[in-house]
Amino acid sequence: MKIIFTGGGTGGHIFPVIAIARAIKRIGPSSLELIYIGPEDNCSKDAFLKENIQTNYISSGKIRRYFSIPDFFANIVDVLFKIPFGILQSLYLVFSISPDFIFSKGGYGSVPVVVAGWMLGVPIFLHESDVSPGLANRILGKLSKEIFVSFSIKDNEYFPVDKMLQVGNPIREELMNGSKEKAKEIFKLKGGKPVILVLGGSQGSQRINDLILEILPGLLKSYEIVHQTGAKDLERVRRQANALLSETLKPEYHTYNFLNEEELKHAYAAADCIISRAGSGIIFELAALKKPSILIPLPEAAQNHQSKNAYSYAKYNACIVLEENNLSPNFFLKKINDIFESNRLEEMKKGAESFAKPNSADIIAKYLLEFLTK
Prior knowledge:
Elements (H helix, E strand, L loop, with lengths): L1 E5 L4 H17 L5 E6 L3 H9 L3 E4 L11 H29 L3 E4 L6 H9 L4 E5 L6 H7 L4 E4 L14 E3 L13 H8 L7 E4 L7 H15 L3 E5 L5 H11 L8 E4 L4 H10 L2 E4 L3 H10 L3 E3 L9 H10 L4 E3 L7 H13 L2 H12 L4 H14 L1
Parallel strand pairs: 1-2, 1-4, 2-3, 4-5, 5-6, 6-7, 8-9, 8-11, 9-10, 11-12, 12-13
Helix pairs in contact: 1-2, 1-14, 3-4, 6-9, 7-8, 7-12, 10-13
């Protein structure tokens, strides 16, 4: 028996696939063969290599809905050349592998594989992370047998109700096993102050980095900070922080370009509050870990999905949502202080717990394995 996984574009498409693949390996037969087909990028390459999942890379493209001459020509190249070529590559691979079904995590990187599978009559299962699906998943939903959704079915306006199953967003079980003591060792935490973890997605967020830098001296008077900046912005953030901070505050600001799974689970364990974008993956991780959070949705996110995700989560009183376009440094610092100075932290923990679906990967894995046995 063979399963093809596909998805791609960001870590948000890759990490849930890893979580489901681990669950299938844990509870499924050892004879199962797991294969990934999608666009080549560093995130997927490193992740699947560690999981011993066979990978096949294909050409893929996306439709950019920005209005500029370079984007116009890039769209022409992608639509006329990259996507058709990716479909041809996928037809060959899917036909050669002859999978029992294809599981798609969505995103532009999955389009050629799902289209090829549909053309060859292979059953398609799709997972949608966000309240509002992107263009790729709206198209792929029409080709899918079942659609797993993360948020409430009643919030989703784009898929047929009879196709949807609400299961949450799969998270890596290993993230639940962090240790505060190990975090002190890894991040050289000084202790004595609450710890705030700042994340900006797998690639970081320059605008969140700038916001943190604006209030950094004031922030470090009351908190210790672990900050994932993204690889492209690490050196700039370090230089500016070095110029801003006194020698006594510098040891309490810890910057990293990216936190791998081992580092992230311990950072989560140590954090009293997390500041982050509002991708579905991070929201469901925070909920499972019962971590209070401040979410700053990415304004440019397609279909405004990050904002919709954040406000759907905020209904449970699990987080505070701050819109980037209306966010001043002083207001930001005040909101952080308000959370710690009130009883809000405990309320947010309870809200996160009531929203959480930590067994999502196992639920999906069992459903897929049941399909195989039938």
